[in-house]
Design brief:
Elements (H helix, E strand, L loop, with lengths): L2 H66 L7 H6 L2 E12 L2 H7 L3 H13 L8 E10 L4 E12 L3 H7 L2 H19 L5 E3 L3 E5 L1
Antiparallel strand pairs: 1-3, 1-4, 1-5, 2-3
Length: 202
Protein backbone atom coordinates (compact mmCIF):
# COMPACT_ATOMS: atom_id res chain seq x y z
CA UNK A 1 0.00 0.00 0.00
CA UNK A 2 1.43 3.38 -1.00
CA UNK A 3 1.84 6.31 1.34
CA UNK A 4 -0.77 8.25 -0.63
CA UNK A 5 -3.37 5.52 -0.25
CA UNK A 6 -2.63 5.24 3.47
CA UNK A 7 -3.08 8.99 3.94
CA UNK A 8 -6.37 8.88 2.00
CA UNK A 9 -7.73 6.11 4.22
CA UNK A 10 -6.79 8.04 7.37
CA UNK A 11 -8.45 11.16 5.95
CA UNK A 12 -11.67 9.31 5.09
CA UNK A 13 -11.75 7.66 8.52
CA UNK A 14 -11.26 11.05 10.16
CA UNK A 15 -14.11 12.55 8.11
CA UNK A 16 -16.41 9.67 9.07
CA UNK A 17 -15.59 10.14 12.76
CA UNK A 18 -16.15 13.91 12.48
CA UNK A 19 -19.53 13.40 10.77
CA UNK A 20 -20.48 10.82 13.41
CA UNK A 21 -19.71 13.21 16.28
CA UNK A 22 -21.50 16.07 14.50
CA UNK A 23 -24.58 13.86 14.15
CA UNK A 24 -24.43 12.96 17.85
CA UNK A 25 -24.23 16.65 18.80
CA UNK A 26 -27.18 17.49 16.55
CA UNK A 27 -29.27 14.71 18.10
CA UNK A 28 -28.39 15.95 21.58
CA UNK A 29 -29.38 19.50 20.64
CA UNK A 30 -32.62 18.21 19.11
CA UNK A 31 -33.42 16.18 22.22
CA UNK A 32 -32.63 19.16 24.44
CA UNK A 33 -34.78 21.41 22.26
CA UNK A 34 -37.71 18.98 22.47
CA UNK A 35 -37.25 18.74 26.22
CA UNK A 36 -37.32 22.53 26.58
CA UNK A 37 -40.50 22.76 24.50
CA UNK A 38 -42.13 20.02 26.58
CA UNK A 39 -41.26 21.80 29.84
CA UNK A 40 -42.47 25.13 28.53
CA UNK A 41 -45.71 23.97 26.88
CA UNK A 42 -46.44 20.78 28.82
CA UNK A 43 -49.91 21.88 29.99
CA UNK A 44 -50.91 23.18 26.56
CA UNK A 45 -49.73 19.98 24.85
CA UNK A 46 -51.73 17.87 27.32
CA UNK A 47 -54.87 19.97 26.74
CA UNK A 48 -54.49 19.67 22.96
CA UNK A 49 -53.96 15.92 23.32
CA UNK A 50 -57.12 15.51 25.41
CA UNK A 51 -59.09 17.65 22.95
CA UNK A 52 -57.93 15.57 19.98
CA UNK A 53 -58.82 12.39 21.87
CA UNK A 54 -62.34 13.70 22.56
CA UNK A 55 -62.75 14.66 18.89
CA UNK A 56 -61.68 11.15 17.88
CA UNK A 57 -64.16 9.57 20.31
CA UNK A 58 -66.95 11.84 19.01
CA UNK A 59 -66.19 10.91 15.40
CA UNK A 60 -66.18 7.19 16.23
CA UNK A 61 -69.48 7.54 18.12
CA UNK A 62 -71.06 9.46 15.23
CA UNK A 63 -69.95 6.85 12.71
CA UNK A 64 -71.32 4.06 14.92
CA UNK A 65 -74.64 5.92 15.37
CA UNK A 66 -75.16 6.63 11.67
CA UNK A 67 -74.36 3.01 10.89
CA UNK A 68 -77.14 1.67 13.13
CA UNK A 69 -79.69 4.53 12.91
CA UNK A 70 -82.65 3.97 10.60
CA UNK A 71 -84.22 7.18 9.30
CA UNK A 72 -87.92 6.72 8.61
CA UNK A 73 -87.75 9.30 5.81
CA UNK A 74 -84.92 7.43 4.07
CA UNK A 75 -86.55 4.07 4.54
CA UNK A 76 -90.31 4.72 4.23
CA UNK A 77 -91.09 1.02 3.89
CA UNK A 78 -89.86 0.45 7.45
CA UNK A 79 -92.21 3.11 8.82
CA UNK A 80 -95.11 1.89 6.67
CA UNK A 81 -94.69 -1.72 7.75
CA UNK A 82 -94.68 -0.89 11.46
CA UNK A 83 -97.88 -1.71 13.31
CA UNK A 84 -99.68 1.52 14.10
CA UNK A 85 -102.49 2.66 16.36
CA UNK A 86 -105.08 5.20 15.28
CA UNK A 87 -106.17 7.89 17.74
CA UNK A 88 -109.21 10.11 17.33
CA UNK A 89 -109.81 13.14 19.54
CA UNK A 90 -113.18 14.88 19.63
CA UNK A 91 -114.05 18.04 21.49
CA UNK A 92 -115.40 21.56 21.14
CA UNK A 93 -113.71 24.92 20.73
CA UNK A 94 -115.47 28.06 21.97
CA UNK A 95 -114.35 31.58 21.03
CA UNK A 96 -116.02 34.57 22.72
CA UNK A 97 -113.92 37.48 21.42
CA UNK A 98 -114.77 38.92 18.00
CA UNK A 99 -111.15 40.01 17.59
CA UNK A 100 -110.01 36.40 17.44
CA UNK A 101 -112.85 35.54 15.07
CA UNK A 102 -111.91 38.39 12.74
CA UNK A 103 -108.22 37.43 12.87
CA UNK A 104 -109.00 33.83 12.02
CA UNK A 105 -111.41 34.94 9.29
CA UNK A 106 -113.72 32.48 10.96
CA UNK A 107 -115.65 29.99 8.90
CA UNK A 108 -115.62 26.24 8.74
CA UNK A 109 -112.95 26.00 6.04
CA UNK A 110 -110.53 28.58 7.42
CA UNK A 111 -110.79 27.19 10.96
CA UNK A 112 -110.08 23.68 9.71
CA UNK A 113 -107.09 24.94 7.70
CA UNK A 114 -105.81 26.75 10.78
CA UNK A 115 -106.07 23.62 12.93
CA UNK A 116 -104.41 21.48 10.24
CA UNK A 117 -101.54 23.95 10.04
CA UNK A 118 -101.08 23.96 13.83
CA UNK A 119 -100.55 20.20 13.97
CA UNK A 120 -98.70 19.96 10.66
CA UNK A 121 -95.91 22.23 11.92
CA UNK A 122 -95.86 20.99 15.51
CA UNK A 123 -92.39 19.48 16.17
CA UNK A 124 -93.88 16.94 18.56
CA UNK A 125 -97.00 15.86 16.67
CA UNK A 126 -96.51 16.49 12.95
CA UNK A 127 -95.02 12.98 12.31
CA UNK A 128 -98.24 11.43 13.62
CA UNK A 129 -100.88 13.93 12.45
CA UNK A 130 -103.35 12.53 9.90
CA UNK A 131 -106.23 14.98 9.58
CA UNK A 132 -108.45 17.53 11.29
CA UNK A 133 -112.16 18.04 10.79
CA UNK A 134 -114.53 20.81 11.83
CA UNK A 135 -117.87 19.02 11.84
CA UNK A 136 -120.06 21.86 13.11
CA UNK A 137 -119.51 25.59 13.47
CA UNK A 138 -121.96 27.74 15.39
CA UNK A 139 -121.39 31.46 14.86
CA UNK A 140 -122.94 33.88 17.32
CA UNK A 141 -122.17 35.67 20.56
CA UNK A 142 -120.22 32.59 21.59
CA UNK A 143 -118.82 30.95 18.48
CA UNK A 144 -118.13 27.26 18.92
CA UNK A 145 -116.97 24.38 16.76
CA UNK A 146 -116.99 20.61 17.10
CA UNK A 147 -113.55 19.21 16.31
CA UNK A 148 -112.27 15.82 15.28
CA UNK A 149 -108.51 15.19 15.23
CA UNK A 150 -106.93 12.02 13.85
CA UNK A 151 -103.43 10.73 14.61
CA UNK A 152 -101.50 7.56 13.81
CA UNK A 153 -98.52 6.37 15.87
CA UNK A 154 -96.45 3.16 15.80
CA UNK A 155 -97.68 0.81 18.51
CA UNK A 156 -94.11 0.11 19.62
CA UNK A 157 -93.65 3.67 20.92
CA UNK A 158 -95.40 2.97 24.21
CA UNK A 159 -93.72 5.65 26.32
CA UNK A 160 -94.04 8.31 23.64
CA UNK A 161 -97.62 7.28 22.88
CA UNK A 162 -98.67 7.60 26.52
CA UNK A 163 -97.34 11.15 26.65
CA UNK A 164 -98.08 12.58 23.21
CA UNK A 165 -101.40 10.86 22.58
CA UNK A 166 -102.98 12.29 25.73
CA UNK A 167 -105.86 14.72 25.43
CA UNK A 168 -103.97 17.21 27.59
CA UNK A 169 -100.99 17.29 25.23
CA UNK A 170 -102.96 17.30 21.97
CA UNK A 171 -105.40 19.92 23.23
CA UNK A 172 -102.57 21.99 24.69
CA UNK A 173 -100.92 22.39 21.27
CA UNK A 174 -104.05 23.99 19.79
CA UNK A 175 -104.79 26.01 22.91
CA UNK A 176 -101.26 27.45 22.95
CA UNK A 177 -101.48 28.47 19.29
CA UNK A 178 -104.74 30.36 19.83
CA UNK A 179 -103.40 31.95 23.01
CA UNK A 180 -100.34 33.18 21.09
CA UNK A 181 -102.68 34.66 18.50
CA UNK A 182 -104.65 36.41 21.23
CA UNK A 183 -101.55 37.94 22.82
CA UNK A 184 -100.22 39.24 19.51
CA UNK A 185 -103.45 40.68 18.09
CA UNK A 186 -106.19 40.85 20.74
CA UNK A 187 -106.81 41.89 24.32
CA UNK A 188 -109.14 40.44 26.95
CA UNK A 189 -110.23 37.63 24.67
CA UNK A 190 -111.60 34.33 25.90
CA UNK A 191 -111.03 30.97 24.24
CA UNK A 192 -112.18 27.68 25.71
CA UNK A 193 -111.17 24.25 24.52
CA UNK A 194 -113.39 21.64 26.11
CA UNK A 195 -111.66 18.49 27.30
CA UNK A 196 -111.04 16.26 24.32
CA UNK A 197 -112.51 12.78 24.31
CA UNK A 198 -110.15 10.11 23.01
CA UNK A 199 -110.91 6.94 21.11
CA UNK A 200 -108.23 4.63 19.76
CA UNK A 201 -108.00 1.58 17.53
CA UNK A 202 -105.04 -0.80 17.53
Amino acid sequence: MSLFQSNMMHTVASLVLILFFINILQEQKKTKWIGEIWKKYKLLIKIIGIFLLLVLVAIISLVAYTKHYVDEDEYPDVALNMEKSMYTFTGSLTIKDSCVLDTLGINKETLQQRIEKVYSVSPALHPYFVSAEVNDLFVGENTSAILRLNFSMPSANQHERKYKMSKEFVGGILRQDINDLEKSQCQNSSVFLDPLHVTSTH
